[in-house]
Design brief:
- The complex is a heterodimer of chains A (about 270) and B (about 250).
- Chain A has about 270 residues and is mainly alpha-helical.
- Chain A has eleven helices and no strands.
- In chain A, helix 4 packs across helix 10, helix 9 packs parallel to helix 10 and helix 10 runs antiparallel to helix 11.
- By secondary structure, chain B is mainly alpha-helical.
- In chain B, helix 8 packs parallel to helix 9.
- The longest helix of chain B is centred in the C-terminal third of the chain and has 39 residues.
- Classes of the chains: A mainly alpha (about 270), B mainly alpha (about 250).
Chain lengths: ~270, ~250
């Protein structure tokens, strides 16, 4: 008698999974774009072929042409996230530590968070000039809000009863901070920094497209002005890949550093 | 004094206290007027622009762009969200792609929209609609997905047909969540429209700010900034009021 063999999924079965549909969609998009680009069906200037875009991307990755711009952008984004974290986490802890302060401050922060941060750029230009520091400032202010708001959310999760119990058993303020506050807020703070990174990238690079001497955003607008559309797409692709990699690296790092902390959901879209 | 009044008094105290410090610093000459305008001067310039200038027209343009984005995002977003709920596999697959697209810095692709639509409001509307569309799609899908099955069972036990079920059970059940998505969309559209107007120097209030900065008119820059902040805050306030009214 023949034994029933375990059924191994075929190609058709694999395609009928979310991953399969996603892969098919992306593949379809690439094929259609390539076809439009090669056949020059719609706006040939606007839709260069995928191969032309990838060739351009390869040039940027393998030659030093992009290096000074990449350095400028990394400096701005790195500086922005450092300043935003150094200001946002302590202030979030301070505001979140007392209910009465939080009641006063939280609506103000929420309202301020809605204002598009790029509009403050002219003020930073007046104070800091058109060099990298004005973009760094825009990135920092954009990242500050998610970081401070999520730190506050973390502080809110600390129940008063935990502190009371800790005090009853004679815990010192340092022990309370280390054993109660830190585990409670770590996940939210990490999520805040990760989301803040996205905000800093957008803020700083968008500011670069307005006025700058160097940076990836500056390059995008330069290529737009010279109508080098394939180069512009290649740069955008490079930025998207870099931002995704940074997001993934931060997620992994924070998961490793704080495996037990309560993670905030992927609130990227909420900021 | 009620708790709300006390809190509001504190908040206003913080805001006006900060403005007072800035005003005093500028008037005393501690900060040069080359960098910072006194808040009272900025408010006067804003008022002059509203009464004698074209600030009202520019605000109208910005409001039109926001309204157009929301109309596009709502119509297409609700339809797409419903479609993604109906077809589970496609819904699950595309939700991840949409979330990934939304968390990427797509606003940097604005030059593509300028090339396609020209340096006009259409470019701002086209790109900003995406920022409204994605939250509405995701919340609509989630809203349909999370309808309490007991409600559907009650509808079935009352022999409601598909049309009646949709009208009397599904729509009232999903409406509050979709409104939350709409609120989120409005916030993103507002930020995107004002930001793009400023960066691309097209449209309404954002363009005014950009023009003022280009001409180094410091008082006008701060007046434009005040205008933008007031517009953003007013919008959020109205959305919050609208949401609480809707939930009643």
């Amino acid at each position: 008698m023949e034994l029933a063999r375990p059924h191994s999924p075929g190609v058709a079965d694999k395609l009928q999974t979310p991953l399969g549909v996603q892969a098919l969609t992306l593949l379809g998009l690439v094929v259609v774009w390539e076809f439009i680009g090669r056949a020059e069906l719609i706006f040939p200037e606007l839709f260069p072929s995928i191969t032309a875009i990838l060739q351009s991307l390869w040039t940027y990755v393998t030659t030093p042409v992009m290096m000074p711009h990449l350095k400028a952008s990394l400096y701005e984004v790195g500086g922005a996230i450092a300043i935003a974290a150094l200001a946002g986490v302590p202030l979030g802890i301070l505001w979140g530590s007392k209910r009465s302060w939080l009641d006063i401050v939280e609506p103000l922060i929420l309202y301020a968070a809605v204002v598009p941060k790029i509009v403050i750029f002219p003020v930073f230009i007046l104070f800091l000039g058109i060099d990298v520091h004005s973009k760094l400032a825009v990135g920092a202010i954009a990242a500050f809000f998610p970081i401070s708001l999520l730190t506050i959310a973390g502080m809110r999760e600390v129940k008063k009863v935990y502190i009371d119990v800790a005090r009853t058993i004679g815990a010192t303020p340092v022990q309370i901070a280390k054993s109660i506050y830190l585990p409670a807020i770590a996940g939210q703070v990490f999520t805040g920094i990760r989301i803040g990174l996205g905000a800093a990238v957008t803020g700083a690079l968008l500011a670069e497209t307005k006025i700058a001497k160097a940076g990836l955003g500056f390059m995008i607008v330069e290529y737009y002005g010279q109508f080098r559309i394939a180069d512009m797409y290649a740069l955008l692709l490079f930025i998207f890949i870099l931002a995704s990699l940074a997001n993934w690296a931060m997620k992994s790092l924070f998961g490793f550093l704080s495996p037990m902390s309560r993670k905030g959901g992927d609130a990227g879209m909420y900021f | 004094m009620s708790e709300t009044t006390r809190l509001n008094a504190w908040r206003l105290g913080i805001i006006f206290g900060a403005l007072l410090i800035v005003e005093a610093s500028v008037r005393a000459g501690w900060i040069s007027t080359f960098f910072l305008a006194a808040p009272t001067r900025a408010v006067i310039v804003l008022w002059q622009q509203l009464v004698h200038g074209n600030a009202l027209v520019l605000t109208g343009i910005t409001l039109f762009e926001i309204a157009a984005c929301l109309a596009i995002a709502t119509v297409f977003g609700v339809l797409a969200g419903f479609f993604l709920w109906r077809y589970k596999l496609i819904g699950t697959s595309y939700e991840t792609l949409l979330a990934a697209l939304f968390s990427s810095p797509i606003i940097l692709a604005y030059p593509i929209f300028l090339v396609t639509f020209g340096r006009t409001s259409a470019a701002v509307i086209a790109l900003s609609s995406i920022f409204g569309l994605i939250p509405i799609i995701i919340t609509t899908k989630g809203a349909f997905q999370n309808v309490n099955p007991i409600l559907l069972q009650v509808g079935a036990s009352m022999n409601l047909n598909r049309k009646q079920m949709f009208r009397h059970i599904l729509i009232p059940a999903v409406a509050p969540t979709i409104f939350s998505g709409f609120r989120l969309a409005l916030t993103y559209v507002l930020k995107s429209v004002l930001g793009l107007e400023y960066v691309a120097q097209v449209g309404g209030v954002g363009m005014w700010l950009s023009d003022a900065a280009f001409k180094f008119e410091v008082e006008e820059v701060y007046a434009g900034l005040f205008g933008t902040i007031i517009l953003s805050i007013l919008f959020l306030y109205l959305i919050n009021r609208g949401e609480s009214w809707f939930r009643k």
